[in-house]
Amino acid sequence: MFFVTHGQRGFLYLFSRTKLNEFCTNIQSSGADLFAITETSCNTSIYNAELVPPSYNILRCDRADGRKQGGALLVATNRFELRRVSLPGDVIIDKCTFELLCATVHKHNKYLFLCCVLYIPPDGNENEYMLLFRLLEQLCTKYKDMIVIGDFNLYSCNTHTINYYEYFVSFCELTQRNEVPNCNNRYLDLVLCSLSLGESVSVSRADEALVSIDRHHPPLVICVPQVRKQATATSVPDISQPLLSIQQNDDLWPQWNFYKADFNKLYYMLMMHDWSPIYSIGEAEDILNYFYGVMYSILDDCVPRKQRCSVNSRYNYPEWYTAEIIRNIKLKALLHKQYKISGLSSDYEMFAQCRATVKQMITSTHEKYQDNVQRNITRDPKSFWDYVRCKKGSVNHKTITKNGNNLAESECAHEFANFFKSVYSPRIAKLDWEAAVAESGVSSARVHIASFDANQVREALIKLKPKRSAGPDGIPAFIIRDCRDFLTYPLLYLYNTCFESACFPERWKLTRVIPVPKGEG
């Protein structure tokens, strides 16, 4: 696991969107798993989605009193999970001069270590230092394997504070691993590790920075071995089992990336396809299977499928990334690994050149994507609002806290199931379908439809909304609507066969249930 820590004076000060984009771009192209940032100067006007890609986790501790600088944040790729650790109830961090962000780091629901990111300004009050040290002491007694990263500014402290710092390090059994001095030959940013981790944790100067480098706070790379295998008392192994295998899931829920589709080829192939064999099929199930077989075959020729990345994959990218960008990002990671092994300047030059290429490609491609959204705002307003929601939306998964512990996803599902079970009656309802049918015929109006005609089907297809979202079959409505002239008759034959046989195909009985959470208010 690679950790990048960055101390930067106000890298988001005056909410510079230029630096926001630079920061987000560099995180996407970085090979690190975790990022610790201090002196962020973030505020409520900056959304999480402006800082990191949607698949990343981010925790923030912003300075709330309006003072410049300050603030801390912790970012993790989707390979890891961050669970915020609450401070004691009598401590209100917004009223302190320092910022302290604490979170446990998990992988596959297994506890790895506790990470604390902090910033305390120069010439800090002695009482503030004492409070900070005592908070960390409480945490170290509760959690095993602890890493504390941040700007302590100890050079401006009095003797009593320095002495207590030495006691704090000894009491918590921590060791200081940062040996990279700043421009004044000082160590403002400290990396304190538990002795159980300390000997195996290495700290070095970062080869690449997330934002412009502050000479007083050189960026650091921290290599932390993943040595913990057992779960802690606060993490329960995931006992949930998938209902479907990945292969079955791909067959039942196909997904294509229509942002990269060749629509000219797609529509041409659908127009030229000979649908005559479908009219010799008598069963509705077989007709539908033939219809989907043709549609899926043509879609696979014209539209790339969305690659199903594992949850712990580092390589999850925004949809506007091109294949060339993704290849270069992976190449950059390989070149960086090669340079770390060899230490040769020639390898570093290759890595640096590839890194510059990746940054330039990401910037230019993102600008083209934004320009395309703006140009098509009148024709395709949904894409614009999708972009806005992407920038404003939260990137963190909602968690449930029970008895002070954050529950894993499987545990959250069990808690919801237990709650719904508790509010419903355990008695089994008596169902009498014969009585229901008899009563329904008394006053209910009956509707009889013998069959459809081509005009009815075509008019229904015209009314389909031009949305990119799709149901379980993976085919968005706008494809069917745009190709109505040559799909009307195959669908008409399918619908009328269903009427005649009084049979509804099994594949059309599938649905996708998506919970819609309510707002914070």
Automatic annotation (TrEMBL):
<dbReference type="GO" id="GO:0003824">
    <property type="term" value="F:catalytic activity"/>
</dbReference>
<dbReference type="GO" id="GO:0061343">
    <property type="term" value="P:cell adhesion involved in heart morphogenesis"/>
</dbReference>
<dbReference type="Pfam" id="PF03372">
    <property type="entry name" value="Exo_endo_phos"/>
</dbReference>
<dbReference type="GO" id="GO:0007508">
    <property type="term" value="P:larval heart development"/>
</dbReference>
<dbReference type="InterPro" id="IPR005135">
    <property type="entry name" value="Endo/exonuclease/phosphatase"/>
</dbReference>
<protein>
    <recommendedName>
        <fullName>Endonuclease/exonuclease/phosphatase domain-containing protein</fullName>
    </recommendedName>
</protein>
<feature type="domain" description="Endonuclease/exonuclease/phosphatase">
    <location>
        <begin position="19"/>
        <end position="195"/>
    </location>
</feature>
<dbReference type="GO" id="GO:0031012">
    <property type="term" value="C:extracellular matrix"/>
</dbReference>
<dbReference type="InterPro" id="IPR036691">
    <property type="entry name" value="Endo/exonu/phosph_ase_sf"/>
</dbReference>
